[in-house]
């Protein structure tokens, strides 16, 4: 079962903390997004293994864009 990690709001990815193949626990920090002049951590919605990362640092994202896939 795959779980999508989605952007909670419009912003810019300033840091990618996870790597493909890495095991993550629920709420582990995976990304940091800059929005409204604040840095907001984005955590894993579920525990699992990172299958795919779809963004890189510096990329602008829209609300609900898929940032990564966890299996």
SSE blueprint and pairings:
Blueprint: E1 3-6, E2 11-16, E3 23-24, E4 29-35, E5 38-43, E6 48-53, E7 60-61, E8 66-70
Structure description:
This protein is mostly beta strands and 71 residues long. It has no helices and 8 strands. The protein has strands at residues 3-6, 11-16, 23-24, 29-35, 38-43, 48-53, 60-61, 66-70. It has a 4-stranded antiparallel sheet, with no helix packed on it.
Q: Would you kindly provide a brief summary of this structure?
A:
The chain contains no helices and 8 strands. With 71 residues, the chain is an all-beta fold. The chain has one domain: Beta Barrel (OB fold (Dihydrolipoamide Acetyltransferase, E2P)).
Tag the structure with descriptive keywords.
OB fold (Dihydrolipoamide Acetyltransferase, E2P); four-stranded antiparallel sheet; globular
């Amino acid at each position: 079962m795959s779980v999508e990690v989605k952007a909670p709001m419009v912003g810019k990815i300033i840091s990618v903390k996870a790597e493909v193949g890495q095991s993550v626990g629920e709420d582990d920090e995976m990304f940091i997004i800059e929005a409204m002049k604040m840095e907001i951590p984005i955590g894993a919605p579920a525990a699992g293994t990172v299958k795919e990362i779809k963004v890189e640092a510096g990329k602008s994202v829209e609300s609900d864009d898929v940032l990564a896939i966890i299996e």
